[in-house]
Design brief:
Layout lengths: L2 H19 L8 E7 L2 E6 L4 E6 L4 E7 L4 E7 L4 E6 L5 E6 L3 E7 L4 E7 L2 E6 L4 E6 L4 E7 L4 E6 L5 E6 L14 E6 L4 E7 L4 E9 L5 E9 L14 E9 L4 E7 L10 E6 L5 E6 L4 E6 H12 L26 E5 L5 E7 L2 E6 L4 E6 L8 E4 L8 H9 L12 H4 L9 E2 L10 E2 L21 H11 L7 H13 L15 H11 L64 H5 L16 H11 L29 H12 L4 H4 L17 H12 L5
Antiparallel strand pairs: 1-2, 2-3, 3-4, 5-6, 6-7, 7-8, 9-10, 10-11, 11-12, 13-14, 14-15, 15-16, 17-18, 18-19, 19-20, 21-22, 22-23, 23-24, 25-26, 26-27, 27-28, 29-30
Helix pairs in contact: 1-12, 3-6, 5-6, 7-9
């Protein structure tokens, strides 16, 4: 049979497999919303679609399917076009004409979100590329990329379109210093350069939302404040976590202050979306953990901030100076209404006149109320027939639910946003007071027992139970614990931004040889998970190691963590003292106890770091990996061959969902990804396999 015939035959097989197995979840999960006149466009992340919703008739009027999960959305009233950010490592902006459907696909960076319009340009956060894309809408292509700080997650533009405010999700640098905080960047849109970088209050983490006042003077940022210098032995009065809004003066790039959204006896867990009313009288903040919206009198807020800055005492609070405000749980007394919602997981927000529209991620619904009412009552609006959630879906919901915490101060997602880590050190009680440790990601924790840095918990299930009891100070039903465990088991690594078209770069390939060769890293980090080899098939490590990275006063050996998603989990080591992998290999490894690295030259160290930052390919189920799934050593080997085809075929026969979450969209009519699995992809994958193509 000729090669072209082989290609066509295998292409037909691939098409049959993908047609039978690839589908989106049935749940409706609003991840973003934008309002254009009386039409609300809703980005449904799990359903991979855009819902067109009429606010006057309160009905869905049209549904636009997408080939990737939408993460952000905005609309241009003049043209009637809607711009949607979607995808993971192969991120793109989809241009939607409601009368025609998707008209253009514009490739951007890794995990694009929070699109904002600037005249004929569109700005987009590339969360895991640490950059902002600038797109020329007349050309429908990216014309510039601006490097910013760690995980840009939200954007807002001033009304005159000259300044772009960027919120970062996690702190940068080591966490064993006396100050850890996320930053806010101000970009000049004409020069496309950063003109100010503003660190927020110490402990600020988990940035989520931003809006700008109608006069363009102030930016408002939602985030959390971790009181990480305190032991985690109580919750009252925000002892561990507070939930806050920080105010920035845009013109000179200065922080005005940080205001707490909690009350003395009631936390307001996990602030997310924020919006300012068009006339500037109100600020609205969704709380995805406590399931409510804060409606704040904005002019009165600034009057109070000005007053306390001048030395006047705050009524109902204790602040007598501006420095007191970030610790004052009574500062918003009399200025804010807390509106309880009917739905679960409020993550998106739109304002229209006096009407507030809220998208509830987990309850497949909207909430709406009149913000001018003295005691607003929110109305529930279903977005279709609710589906019975899977155990994992329920687990994700409970993980993000502040109602599982005493007084709603926090949720599991406060310390572990997206199931990962907050970039801070915490002094947990499980290994004694006065022993702060860097927060670990929970990714793959259920496949790498024991749990915790010192391995003090037998496994992740035990650790989850202890977390509810000793961090959230609640005992929850075993059914909820089982659901949380199910969700965490289902989580898989996000493809590393260090990969090149889904595969190891040449530098990473060289680094892989060093990892398993003269650096001896593979002695302790083995298999798909890169954990201790004693784990074998039961994923239980029997050996812990002392590699010289524990505190001088603590000689206990430490558990070997997985290296999957190491690119995402800085800072490193038990105390968060290493800001980069390079520091792990050099500054924090003077005696070659944590790998033999002292004899490596700079180029070899760079290659080794590049490989570590690329690890996890074999476990990806969330994006295209160019067909390279497995290899002789149990992980992707940079070659598309029969092992990869058989792995896919095996998963299909067994009814596994690998293909459902790993579309092989690697090519298209014009030689680039086109966000649909079709004959172009089949021919590409088949030819790579048949001719042992090495990417």
């Amino acid at each position: 049979m000729k090669p072209t015939q082989w290609t066509l035959l295998l292409s037909l097989i691939y098409i049959m497999i993908l047609t039978l197995t690839t589908q989106a979840d049935d749940y409706i999960s609003p991840a973003g919303m934008t309002l254009d006149a009386n039409t609300l466009y809703i980005a449904d992340k799990t359903g991979r679609q855009i819902l067109e919703y009429a606010t006057d008739t309160r009905q869905i009027t049209c549904v636009f399917p997408l080939p990737a999960s939408p993460l952000g959305i905005t609309a241009q009233s003049e043209s009637g076009l809607v711009y949607i950010t979607a995808g993971v490592s192969s991120g793109a902006v989809f241009v939607l004409d409601p009368s025609q459907g998707i008209t253009h696909i514009i490739p951007v960076g890794h995990t694009p979100m929070s699109p904002v319009l600037n005249n004929q340009n569109l700005f987009v956060c590339n969360r895991f590329d640490n950059s902002i894309s600038c797109i020329d809408l007349s050309l429908n292509q990216e014309i510039a990329r601006i490097a910013v700080g760690r995980e840009p997650i939200a954007l807002a533009l001033t009304p005159d379109e000259t300044r772009l405010v960027v919120v970062h999700h996690l702190p940068e640098g080591p966490s064993d210093d006396n100050y850890s905080s996320i930053t806010v960047s101000i970009i000049n849109t004409a020069t496309r350069s950063i003109i100010n970088t503003i660190p927020l209050y110490d402990g600020a983490s988990g940035g989520r939302g931003v809006c700008v006042s109608p006069d363009g003077i102030y930016a408002y940022i939602t985030h959390l404040i971790g009181r990480y210098k305190m032991p985690t032995n109580q919750l009252e009065r925000g002892w561990m976590w507070n939930n806050a809004v920080s105010i920035i003066k845009i013109a000179n790039g200065t922080k005005v202050n940080t205001v707490l959204l909690d009350d003395v006896y009631a936390g307001a867990a996990n602030p997310w979306a924020i919006a300012c009313s068009s006339e500037g009288n109100y600020l609205c903040v969704t709380h995805s953990g406590s399931m409510e919206v804060s409606v704040i009198d904005r002019p009165a807020l600034h009057q109070r901030l000005d007053s306390v800055a001048a030395g006047a005492a705050v009524p109902c609070g204790f602040s007598s100076s501006a420095d007191d405000v970030p610790g004052d749980l009574g500062f918003l007394a009399g200025l804010r209404k807390r509106v309880q919602l009917t739905g679960n997981g409020p993550r998106s927000l739109a304002l229209a006149g006096n009407s507030v529209w809220v998208g509830n991620y987990f309850s497949e619904s909207l909430d709406t109320f009149d913000l001018t009412e003295a005691y607003p009552r929110s109305e529930k609006l279903l977005l279709g027939q609710p589906q019975q959630p899977s155990l994992a879906r329920l687990g994700e919901q409970y993980f993000n639910d502040g109602n599982t915490c005493y007084q709603k101060w926090l949720s599991c997602a406060s310390c572990h946003p997206d199931g990962r880590m907050d970039g801070l050190n915490w002094d947990l009680m499980n290994d004694g007071m006065g022993s702060p440790r860097n927060v670990k990601s929970l990714l793959l924790a259920h496949y790498s027992a024991p749990a915790m840095i010192t391995g003090i918990r037998a496994n992740a299930e035990v650790a989850i139970n202890a977390g509810f009891k000793f961090i959230q100070f609640m005992s929850i039903p075993v059914e909820k614990e089982a659901a949380v465990n199910a969700w965490l088991r289902s989580e898989r690594p996000v493809p590393s931004p260090h990969l090149v078209r889904g595969n190891y770069s040449l530098s990473a390939q060289r680094g892989r040889n060093i990892f398993y060769g003269k650096a001896h890293c593979g002695f302790c980090h083995q298999g798909d998970l890169y954990i201790d080899p004693s784990a074998n098939d039961d994923y239980i490590s029997e050996i812990k190691y002392d590699v010289g990275t524990n505190r001088p006063d603590d000689t206990r050996p430490l558990d070997v963590p997985t290296l999957a998603e190491a690119w995402r989990t800085a800072p490193y080591l038990q105390n968060g003292g290493a800001a980069t992998i390079m520091e792990v290999l050099t500054t924090h490894n003077p005696n070659n106890r944590h790998g033999i690295t002292s004899g490596l030259n700079q180029a070899e160290l760079q290659d080794l770091q590049e490989f570590v930052l690329s690890i996890g390919k074999a476990l990806y189920t969330s994006d295209s990996i160019n067909g390279d799934i497995t290899g002789l050593l149990g992980e992707a080997d940079g070659i598309v061959d029969i092992q990869d085809f058989l792995a896919l075929l095996s998963d299909w026969i067994q009814g596994n969902s690998f293909l459902t979450a790993s579309p092989t969209d690697i090519n298209g009519q014009y030689g680039i990804k086109d966000y649909q699995v079709d004959m172009f992809d089949m021919m590409d994958v088949s030819s790579r396999w048949l001719f042992s193509y090495n990417p």
